[in-house]
Amino acid sequence: MTEVNVHLSAQALDEIFKPAAYLGNIQAQIDAVLQAAQGQLAVQIQGVKDAPVIIFSNSLGTDHGMWQAQVDALAQHYQIITYDTRGHGASDVIANSTLQNFADDVIDILDTWHIEKAHFCGISMGGITALTLAIEYPERFYSITVANSAAKIGTAEAWTTRADSVEQHGLAEIVKTTHTRWFSEHFDYAHDVLAQKTIQSLAVTPAQGYANACRALADADVRDQLNQIQIPTLIIAGQYDPVTTVQDAEFMHQSIPTSQLEILAASHLSNIEQPQVFNQALSKFIQNI
Length: 289
Hints:
The protein has 289 residues and is α/β, with parallel strands linked by helices. It is 40% helix and 19% strand.
């Protein structure tokens, strides 16, 4: 792992008297910035004293705010950590993003706050990060939740083409049509506050950060390693998801002996389209571990 220094907001400094203290004593949200060798990583922490930790990992082109419905529902019972994946939100764009980079960032978060083990929930790009963590660092996690993801998302050619296009033309065209991939026709995304905020987060994502993540996804493929996963795994799929399909979820479920599968009436961002059902599935899964 990289060496990490922690820089906290004034609010956080008022509440923490030891920079690397375990954050079980924190009730209100704090904002932290990890200064690692790969650049700054924006982290948000809130929740209940001494409660189990759940880390949430965002999808491509979004930021930590996409998890607001889960934070609102679970922060009364758990310690919640969200963060902006490299090149997204307030986290630095780095020269080369890889799936291993994404996984190592999570371990840096755990190490910085002396968190021995946690539950991890990732969606889409965050979901394949979850799989990587379960393969590489199983001793650090009680469970993983893999939402709207796959062991291999799309094709390398498609991701490389998208990365090249975004570098040349920016994200404007992708933003215009993203609702057709993220949300089903049954969901009134235009009048959902969180859905609109999440689309806006795509609009302000650094183009180079997005392109770098696309190239990381082009190379990401853990299909042959799924049977190595031995920790409890919840797989959540969207019935109407055109990006990571129910078939992708079923393949993971069949390949991971410790997994269970939930299919929600949603498209690609099921945590936003069906937040109550998503939260219920996640809560029940974690409570039974």
